[in-house]
Design brief:
Number of helices: 10
Bound molecules: adenosine monophosphate
Shape: globular
Radius of gyration: 20 Å
Largest sheet: 6 strands, parallel
Number of strands: 10
Structural class: alpha/beta
Length: 308
């Protein structure tokens, strides 16, 4: 078995060696065990592949703080419901691995589904409460699949820090809860949303959009900007902020809102007004494609700061 070069020994900082592509759980565990024994601070970026600049920002964040960095690519069948896009979800392993190698990532963990869910697999992780709301209401079982695969990946990779995008704010919150509840060692870092020049948040699912829907999808960012402007103008009432976002979505004939909500950033329960940390959350259909976006609102002593 070939192990990645010892880039994680600070004083050496050797140039990036070839990236290790790991397909089995046992091999990944051995590499991770060895890295930690050599004093490595293992950074982990779990993804479903079809990598874009949002994923790259997570890799860069991991590389600033950790060495070695492990990226996983696994289109997790258990987080897709029946009739969802598991079969057509974009898969681009060759291009993804080239990109990761060019970034200097040490290890790519890309297991087959049967490696993660061998015959007879029957255990699951469920984060109750938060998982039932918003994404969980529209996609029953989704977060059970996410929590289960993240618990498994953390057990296999044993990261020091793991990097998630705020793009999937509810998912990041659920994983923080999972880590807390199961006494997992990984520290969770939540990174900012990376956007296209016109404000659309990068997503592997943007590839599904027709040219017209792609143009229409800027309504997500415009809706958040409307809420941000209202907050800047002193509005703190959650219903009025949600109405401002709905108005923008409503004016876009190709958009159909699934949910538009202001929630408490800890509980993900609906907020009556902007207080402490909140999220403005949107899930909107453009044709058959459902896109998510959000804005973090941090309020303290009446002052509110919005991060889109
Ligand atoms: P996915 O491959 O869609 O499962 O996403 C893998 C990770 O990348 C998750 O933590 C996502 O939240 C994060 N991510 C996806 N899109 C973006 C984005 N536009 N900006 C920042 N992070 C993102």
């Amino acid at each position: 078995m070939r192990l990645p070069a010892c880039r994680w020994i600070d004083s050496l900082r050797l140039p990036a060696g070839p990236m290790e592509i790991i397909r089995t759980v046992e091999w990944m565990k051995q590499v991770s065990r060895r890295a930690r024994a050599e004093g490595g601070l293992l950074g982990f970026v779990p993804t479903m592949g079809a990598l874009h600049a949002g994923h790259v920002s997570l890799v860069r964040a991991a590389q600033r703080e950790c060495s070695p960095v492990v990226v996983s690519i696994f289109v997790n069948p258990r987080q897709f419901g029946p009739g969802e896009d598991f079969d057509r979800y974009p898969r681009a392993l060759a291009a993804d691995s080239q990109l990761l190698e060019s970034l200097g990532v040490e290890c790519l963990f890309a297991p087959e589904a049967a490696e993660i869910y061998p015959p007879g697999f029957s255990s699951h992780a469920e984060v109750e409460g938060i998982s039932a709301r918003l994404e969980g209401r529209t996609r029953p079982g989704h977060f059970r699949g996410v929590a289960t695969v993240v618990l498994k990946l953390f057990e296999i990779v044993q990261p020091w820090r793991a990097y998630f995008g705020r793009k999937d704010a509810q998912q990041a919150r659920i994983i923080q809860q999972l880590v807390r509840d199961f006494h997992l060692d990984a520290e969770i870092q939540v990174c900012p949303i990376v956007r296209e020049a016109d404000g659309l948040a990068l997503s592997s699912r943007n590839a599904y959009l027709s040219a017209e829907d792609r143009r229409a999808a800027t309504a997500l960012h415009r809706a958040l900007a409307a809420a941000r402007d209202a907050v800047a103008g002193g509005e703190r009432d959650a219903a009025r902020l949600a109405a401002a976002m709905r108005e923008v979505i409503g004016k876009e004939p190709r958009a159909m809102a699934d949910y538009v909500e202001i929630v408490n950033a800890d509980s993900f329960e609906p907020a009556a007004c902007v207080r402490g940390s909140c999220y403005a959350l949107l899930a909107v259909f453009f044709g058959a494609t459902r896109l998510l976006d959000n804005m973090l609102i941090e309020e303290k002593d009446g002052e509110a700061r919005c991060e889109i």
